[in-house]
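User: Second chain of the day. Same drill as before.
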Amino acid sequence: MTISIDPAVPDDVEAIADLMEELDTFYGAPPAQPRDAQVAQIRRLVFGTPPAAQVLLARDNGRLIGMAAYSYLWPAAGVTHSIFLKELYVMEEARRKGVGRLLMNRLHQIATAQNCSRVEWMTDTTNIAARKFYEACGFTLHEGKLFFQVKSADLSATETA
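Assistant: Same format as last time:
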């Protein structure tokens, strides 16, 4: 394998959409919208002004095999900013070959270059493979916070509460 890690560019939108479809399948989610809507959404959210997220892509000899999608958060401790890793995904055939570690290393390089105070992320408690991967990278589980979520369909209900 000859793996490269680079920021996504607008020409990557279709390949990102393909990878996102595989990611949805991995998590057991049905396609949420038609392909053209997915492509338009990726183009707007990743390459619009302002972008909603940044994306690093892992390629093996030019073929997309993984990604890390992240955003900057402010404020973090000490009125600093941090990086929140929303999604780290490597195609099944490329797992256990160092791709995820390369993506995490690049993300940490970016955080250092941008003077971020930390990099944070979550994984499902049932995703044992991901937990083992993070532990193998030397990361420790932080149990000090709880995760809350409101789905967009429920947002209007919260406005009247």
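The domain at 3-159 is CATH 3.40.630.30 (Aminopeptidase).

User: Great, on to the next one.
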